[in-house]
Hints:
The complex is a heterodimer. Helices cover 53% and strands 0% of the residues of chain A. The mean pLDDT of chain A is 92. Chain A is mostly helical. Chain A has four helices and no strands. The termini of chain A are close together. Chain A has one domain: ACP-like (Non-ribosomal Peptide Synthetase Peptidyl Carrier Protein, Chain A, Orthogonal Bundle). The longest helix of chain A has 15 residues, at 35-49. Chain B has a seven-stranded parallel sheet with strand order 3-2-1-4-5-6-7, sandwiched between helices. The model of chain B has no long low-confidence stretch (mean pLDDT 94). The chains are: A mainly alpha, B alpha/beta. Chain A binds chain B through residues 13, 15, 35-40, 42-44, 52, 54-55, 58, and chain B through 97-99, 101-102, 150-151, 198-200.
Amino acid sequence: xxxxxxxxxxxxxxxxxxxxxxxxxxxxxxxxxxxxxxxxxxxxxxxxxxxxxxxxxxxxxxxxxxxxxxxxx
Amino acid sequence: xxxxxxxxxxxxxxxxxxxxxxxxxxxxxxxxxxxxxxxxxxxxxxxxxxxxxxxxxxxxxxxxxxxxxxxxxxxxxxxxxxxxxxxxxxxxxxxxxxxxxxxxxxxxxxxxxxxxxxxxxxxxxxxxxxxxxxxxxxxxxxxxxxxxxxxxxxxxxxxxxxxxxxxxxxxxxxxxxxxxxxxxxxxxxxxxxxxxxxxxxxxxxxxxxxxxxxxxxxxxxxxxxxxxxxxxxxxxxxxxxxxxxxxx
Lengths: 73, 248
C-alpha cells in the first residue's frame, strides 16, 4: 500500500480534512487522537493489514510516521 | 440432611465449554454430580475439559454454533443414551471492542448471532418435550448489558437482548416446567478478558470499579450451579448480577 493510501486511511479514520496529517504531525497535538482513535486503529490494522497490535504499543507512538510505519502487511 | 445443590440426577448441556466460564462451569457442575454434555468448536480443548470432569457418563459434541443450521442434531446426540436433559448453559460468546466508525452490519451480525440468536435457538430446541424433563436454563450475559463501556455498543445490545428475551421466555417456559435466567458477570479473568485488554480496554481500571476486585471463572460457575440447582427453584426470568459489587 502506498504512503498516500495509508495517509488517506488515517485521515478517514480520524475524520480530519485531506492533507491535514503529515508524517511529522505529533499525535499529542491531534485532538482526534484519543482512546477511541487507538481502538479504531487496532481494528484498522487487523482488517487492512492482518496485524494484531496491542493498545499499549500504539500508545507509545509519537508521530503519524510511527503509525504509517506499522501499517504494513 | 438435605443438599439442594446436589446435581447427581441432572444432565446439563454447556456451550462454550472448551474455555473460560463454560469450562469452569462444566468442571464445577460435574463436581456437584451432574452429567455433562460439552459443546464447542475445538475438539482438542473439549477433550481437555472432559479430562478434568469428575464422575462418569459425560460426552462432548464438536459443533460450530455460528454455522449450524439445525441445532436439533446437538440435542439428538445429547440424549442418544436415552436420558433427557435437565439443564442448558449458554456460555459460548463473542466480544468485540468496536468504535462506532468501525461498526459494520457484518460485524454486528456475527456478535449478535453467537450471543443472542444462537441462545434463542438453543432454548427453542431444549424446550422441546423430547429433549427435556423440565429443568433450568442459564444464559451467560454480561455486566455490559446493564453498564456498558465505550465501544461496546453491539456487545452490550446482544447481551441485553439475552436478558429481556429470558424474561419473556420465562412466561412460556413455566408451562413446560422450565426456568430460565441470565447471569451478568462483571470483569472475570478469562482468556476473553485478556484479549479485550490487549485491544485497549484497561482491566485494572475496571477491576477498581468492583468492590471485590477481579472475579475468577469459578465465581460464575458457582452462580450457574445455583441457578441450575433446585436451590433456585423459585427464581425465573431474572438477571443475576455476579459482578463483585460494581456500582460505580
